[in-house]
């Protein structure tokens, strides 16, 4: 299944499925990302693979609308579904339909580049990271929230079993298990925390570090542009 078909298939139930599959914990993971970002008034972020815009809305809430968020995603259905979640900070949001590997923005445009549960879908992750470096201002920050590798092997086994159930839940909720087979597949193929850190450094970022959450079910990576 193509990435576009996957997200077309789930777009109108995307937020609901996120809650069901993660048992609501994706909300906590995203708040951890925003905590670590430390948003400040006037901050200008790009939310790449932003989909329905969950990260942008959380960011704007933290700065009480005193900031700017550009949601960038190649899937028009995801962007359109997100635009239904209009809240009081809608005026601070810009939506752009584009791929992470070819961002339609000037060099040095943003204070922070955020990608949440999106980078494993990129066709070319290294190119995406190089684009992140290009569009960030000097002193800007790259942050990524993504499914990762568990540290504990017993927990990893348990998690593997749960992963096998995810497509069945998808079938029940959105009527199609294929997008969720794709999800599990991309999680398995995504590099480990250490390997991904090396890719971030290779793109030119400095002070690269990561934090595991729930033993590494997800990890948040951070890097700075000098
Ligand atoms: C799982 S959703 C994540 C949405 C949101 N960021 C969140 O955390 O809930 C993944 C998104 O990645 C987008 N995507 C897929 N390929 C992409 C690419 N090459 N560049 C940018 N976004 C991409 C999809 O369209 C989809 O909206």
Keywords:
226 residues; alpha/beta; Rossmann fold; globular; binds S-adenosylmethionine
Task: Note down, in words, how this protein is organized.
- Helix 1 crosses helix 8 and helix 7 packs antiparallel against helix 8.
- The model has no long low-confidence stretch (mean pLDDT 93).
- Helix content is 44%, strand content 22%.
- It is of the alpha/beta class.
- Strands 3-2-1-4-5-7-6 form a seven-stranded mixed beta sheet, sandwiched between helices.
- It has one domain: Rossmann fold (3-Layer(aba) Sandwich).
- The protein binds S-adenosylmethionine.
- S-adenosylmethionine binds next to helix 1 and helix 4.
Task: Please give the number of β-strands.
Answer: 7
Give the tally of structural domains. Answer: 1
Main beta sheet, described? 7 strands, mixed
Average pLDDT, to the nearest integer?
93
The main sheet orders its strands as 3-2-1-4-5-7-6
How would the global form be characterised? globular
Q: How is the CATH topology named?
A: Rossmann fold
The helix/strand series, from N terminus to C terminus, equals HHHEHEHEEHEHHHEE
Q: What is the CATH-assigned architecture?
A: 3-Layer(aba) Sandwich
């Amino acid at each position: 299944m193509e990435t576009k078909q996957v997200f077309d298939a789930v777009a109108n139930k995307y937020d609901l499925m996120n809650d069901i599959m993660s048992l609501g914990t994706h909300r906590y993971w995203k708040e951890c990302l925003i905590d670590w970002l430390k948003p400040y008034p006037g901050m200008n972020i790009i939310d790449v693979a932003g989909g329905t815009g969950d990260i942008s809305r959380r960011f704007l809430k933290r700065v009480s609308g005193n900031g700017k968020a550009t949601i960038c995603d190649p899937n028009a259905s995801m962007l359109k579904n997100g635009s239904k979640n209009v809240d009081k900070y809608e005026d601070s949001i810009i939506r752009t339909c584009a791929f992470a590997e070819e961002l339609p923005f000037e060099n040095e445009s943003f204070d922070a580049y955020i990608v949440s549960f999106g980078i494993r879908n990129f066709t070319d992750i290294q190119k995406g990271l190089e684009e992140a470096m290009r569009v960030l201002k000097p002193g800007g920050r790259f942050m990524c929230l993504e499914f990762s590798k568990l540290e504990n092997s017993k927990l990893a086994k348990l998690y593997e079993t749960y992963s096998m159930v995810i497509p069945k839940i998808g079938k029940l909720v959105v009527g199609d298990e294929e997008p969720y087979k794709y999800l599990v597949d991309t999680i398995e193929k995504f590099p480990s925390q250490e390997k991904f850190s090396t890719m971030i450094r290779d793109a030119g970022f400095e002070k690269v570090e990561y934090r595991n959450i729930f033993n590494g079910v997800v990890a948040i990576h951070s890097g700075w542009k000098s």
